[in-house]
Fold this protein.
Amino acid sequence: MTDQVQKILQIADDELILGWRNSEWTGIAPMLEEDVAFSSIAQNEIGHARAWYELAARELGPTANELAFDRRPDEYRCSRLVELRLVPDWAATIARHHLYETADEERIAALKQSDDTEIAGLAAKIDREEAYHRMHAQMWFERLQDEPRFQEALDELRPLLDVRGEPTSELAELWEEMTMVRRSVAGATW
Amino acid sequence: MIYEVFRQERKGQAFAHAGSVEAPNEAFAEAYAREQYGRRGESAALWVVPREAVHEIDDFADELQKNYHRVDGYPLKEKLGKARERVSAKNADAFSAGAG
């Protein structure tokens, strides 16, 4: 596996798992409006994951679906930060959202400069949606920044951003849930 | 706070009331309005207005039933019907004159 595709898989895993975790707020977010907004962000992240998996599948094959769902939990390369199940802690969820979006902005900016025009093009497209996520994260950051609970969550979660490749039981549980339907019918295509 | 959202479907068209969002401040209101009324390409533009900024007027005095002030004061339906009849009668005359 080249470094390049390894990196793309890492992003795809981050976006898929974070999208899944964020979607756990659907129906129970603090306000109806926020429920819609946060669910929409979750959907976007999964859409980004799909696009990155499709790109990675050209080298790793066979399709985005296999890469997303047919690997073992210990083969995922996502950050420890996105693996955590944070429901029903909204302060921690927003802390993660802010930490992730800040780090993701740098990563996407670097990919936009890639020599590979497809990677650069996809990064630019995704960045236009991420701009909205960053706006949302910033808005909440400003609202919660004086809350001790929020600051504690930031301090607690920040070091997890760069922890990768250490399988956790939380990810294994999520994987069970995420792939259950797919595994229920052998050979099914969706 | 409640914000009222107005939606313009296509550039140049009038804005129409779309609904309202509850949000703690303007930034949130804009984000939520964007999500609920603009995410699916259904709007060219939105107006997001604090509800207090909207002045409602609903007391219209019309004690003497001055129906000539209203757009429905002069029923045109009958007049239009008669005018159409006149035109078609005239056309029929012209046609028979030409044929003869």
